[in-house]
From TrEMBL:
Biological classification of the source: Eukaryota, Fungi, Dikarya, Ascomycota, Pezizomycotina
Name this polypeptide is given: Riboflavin kinase
GO cellular component, one term: mitochondrion
Naturally occurring in which organism (per UniProt): Aspergillus carbonarius (strain ITEM 5010)
Superkingdom in the source lineage: Eukaryota
GO BP field: FMN biosynthetic process; riboflavin biosynthetic process
EC nos: 2.7.1.26
Catalytic activity from the UniProt record: riboflavin + ATP = FMN + ADP + H(+)
One Gene Ontology molecular-function label: riboflavin kinase activity
Pathway: Cofactor biosynthesis; FMN biosynthesis; FMN from riboflavin (ATP route): step 1/1
Region of interest (Disordered), ranges: 1-23
Domain Riboflavin kinase: 18-170
Length: 202
C-alpha cells in the first residue's frame, strides 16, 4: 500500500539528469490492457517492454521524461512532449507481465489539466496513434509501484505524478530536453539526445 506521507513536488537533481539517466527506449505504440482510458480516464501509449532487457537494474515504478512520435505517422504541433510513465506490473491490477505505459502530457507552456484535485480530474488526451514509432528519454524516477485501496486513490496518485513530472521538467536543466536540437543555449550532449529522440527512419 502507498505510504501515507506527503509527496515531494519535484524529483531528481536541479542540475539535470544524473546517471543512469537519460535512458533511451523506443518502439511502436501497441495496444495495452485497455484500462487506461476506459477505467481510469488516463490515456496511455504502450510500447513493447523488450528493450528493458538492456537495463536489468532499472527499478519498477513511475518515471518522467520526454517523448517524440514519428511525424510521418502522427502530426503534432510540438515535436517533443513531456511524459509520465509506469514501468512494471501495476499491483492494483496484479499484472503478470511487465509493461511500459506512457501518459503524454500537454506542452509545459499549456495549462495543466491535472493541476488541482478540486472537481473531476481530467487528463490530457491525443487522438489514437497505434502503430506509430515512439522514442522515449527517461529523465528521472518519481516513485515505486504501490497497491491502492481504491480506484480513486490510484487516479489521485497518478494526478500528483503528472504534477511532479511537470514541475521537475520545468527546471532549466530539464526544459532543454523539450527544446529544439538547434537551440544553442542548451548543452551539446542534451542536443545530441534530442537528435536521437527526434530521428526516425523515413
Amino acid at each position: 500500500m502507498r505510504p501515507d506521507t506527503p509527496r515531494d513536488p519535484v524529483t531528481g537533481p536541479d542540475s539535470g539528469p544524473s546517471s543512469p539517466y537519460p535512458i533511451r527506449l523506443s518502439g511502436p505504440v501497441i495496444k495495452g490492457f485497455g484500462r487506461g482510458s476506459k477505467e481510469l480516464g488516463i490515456p496511455t501509449a504502450n510500447i513493447p517492454a523488450d528493450e528493458l532487457a538492456k537495463y536489468p537494474d532499472l527499478s519498477v515504478g513511475v518515471y518522467y521524461g520526454v517523448v517524440a512520435l514519428d511525424p510521418s505517422r502522427f502530426a503534432s504541433q510540438e515535436p517533443i512532449l513531456p511524459a509520465v510513465l509506469s514501468i512494471g506490473y501495476n499491483p492494483f491490477y496484479k499484472n503478470e507481465t511487465k509493461s511500459i505505459e506512457i501518459h503524454l502530457m500537454p506542452p509545459l507552456s499549456s495549462p495543466s489539466p491535472t493541476a488541482t484535485a478540486d472537481g473531476p480530474v481530467t487528463f490530457h488526451k491525443l487522438p489514437d496513434f497505434y502503430g506509430t514509432p515512439l522514442n522515449l528519454l527517461l529523465l528521472g524516477y518519481i516513485r515505486p509501484e504501490f497497491d491502492y485501496v481504491s480506484l480513486e486513490a490510484l487516479v489521485e496518485d497518478i494526478r500528483v505524478d503528472c504534477e511532479v513530472a511537470r514541475r521537475s521538467l520545468q527546471r532549466p536543466a530539464y526544459a532543454c530536453y523539450l527544446a529544439s536540437k538547434e537551440d544553442e543555449t542548451c548543452p551539446e550532449d542534451v542536443r545530441g539526445q534530442i537528435r536521437w529522440l527526434t530521428r526516425f527512419e523515413s
